[in-house]
Amino acid sequence: MIQKVVVTGGLGFIGSHVVVELQNEGFEVVIIDNLSNSSIDVLKGITAITGKQPLFEKLDLREKESVIDFFKRHHDIIGVIHFAASKAVGESVNLPLLYYENNLNTLIYILQELQKKEAANFIFSSSCTVYGQADTLPITESAPIKEAESPYGNTKQIGEEIIRDTCKVTDTLNAIALRYFNPIGAHESAKIGELPIGTPQNLVPFITQTGIGLREQLSIFGNDYPTEDGTCIRDYIHVVDLAKAHVAALKRLINGNNTDNYEVFNIGTGKGSSVLEVITAFEDVSNKKLNYKIVDRREGDVIAAYADTSKANKVLGWKSKLNLRDALASAWKWEQRIK
Ligand SMILES: NC(=O)c1ccc[n+]([C@@H]2O[C@H](COP(=O)([O-])OP(=O)(O)OC[C@H]3O[C@@H](n4cnc5c(N)ncnc54)[C@H](O)[C@@H]3O)[C@@H](O)[C@H]2O)c1
User: Is the beta carbon of 160 within 6 A of some atom in ligand 1?
Assistant: First the structure.
């Protein structure tokens, strides 16, 4: 029997890649998206890659009645993968209530509907931001959660707590929170990728936009950090690898292989790369010299973060396969396509 999965935010950067992997694995997908940070054209990209158009409902998950109605109409779903959220850290500082409403109310409304079901599987997009500057590297799932640096980061911490507390009193609900490190790259076909609206918040879109000439110069925020070359270190994970982790997590729940009804996994490569290393790798794969300058440190940036992925490797049976160069080459191919 074909299994039907709901993907909220499924036209966004990570969600669209997950929809592709789910369809490739034979799942039927229903996407919910309000198009607040995506384009309807992404649907065409997904269809071109997989040969199958997912179902799509334009719906704002902040509208509780619409969420209730959606789950009534789609009573046969086997699980929900919840990406829909606002994600700009800087914006969240200025618009905290928008972030708390969009990232937490939507989560609550979905969980309320899943709680009514005889059985439900739920996967949540969390982030390594919950660890702040971890005391020990690489970061394991048992590292302490640090006080959030922004309302955005706080929504991920509170989101995890909401799911954990709900699972405690709901035997019929099985949930996994995936703590992503730094997702980058695009599908190898260059038919879907990251579509930053306005100024990119993340390093790689900034790099590719500078490479293509959309931006004059790339700013590196600080080169006096206590790292080998003085720039910050992150764990950059190819979005296609990340997408496959969601399929592994969903199958774990569907097959009843989970040992607890709320589990948490780090999803990264396990390898840290500095900003300068990323720039050099980009210059290499693109054959372009990047114009960059060093500016002051940015408030809230942690020095270094990379994952201990052994739990995901062992328990989920998932491991990242693509490296930084693969990811940058795919991001560059995508940038050239959308320019
Ligand atoms: N990209 C990253 O670096 C990163 C890192 C860690 C965690 N995450 C989390 O992963 C998830 C997906 O991130 P992304 O990079 O794909 O973001 P994205 O903005 O590309 O995708 C989110 C999608 O959700 C939709 N959406 C937002 N609010 C909605 C609402 N109220 N109703 C319906 N749809 C709504 C947007 O239109 C968009 O298509 C988010 O929860 C984000 O916080 C992202």
Answer: no
Ligand 1 centroid from CA 148, angstroms: 19
Whether 36 is in the pocket of ligand 1, judged by its Cβ within 6 Å, is yes
Of 131, 152, 225, 262, which residue is the catalytic one?
A: 152
pLDDT by residue for the chain (339 residues), tens only, comes to 899 999 999 999 999 999 999 999 999 999 999 999 999 999 999 999 999 999 999 999 999 999 999 999 999 999 999 999 999 999 999 999 999 999 999 999 999 999 999 999 999 999 999 999 999 999 999 999 999 999 999 999 999 999 999 999 999 999 999 999 999 999 999 999 999 888 888 999 999 999 999 999 999 999 999 999 999 999 999 999 999 999 999 999 999 999 999 999 999 999 999 999 999 999 999 999 999 999 999 988 999 999 999 999 999 999 999 999 999 999 999 999 998
CA distances from 150 to 15, 101, 129, 141, 144 (A): 23, 15, 9, 21, 17
Q: Best of 11, 33, 80, 92 to mutate for ligand 1, by most ligand atoms within 8 A of CB? A: 33
Is the pTM above the cut of 0.70? yes
CA distance 295 to 197: 23
Query: How many whole angstroms from 186 Cα to the centroid of ligand 1?
Result: 15
The amino acid occupying position 107 is L
Distance 86 CA to ligand 1 centre (A): 6
| Neighbour tally for 212: CB within 10 Å | 15
Among this protein's residues, is 180 annotated catalytic?
Answer: no
CA angle 223, 227, 230 (to 5 degrees): 15
Question: Ligand 1: does its nearest atom lie under 6 Å from the Cβ of 13?
Answer: yes
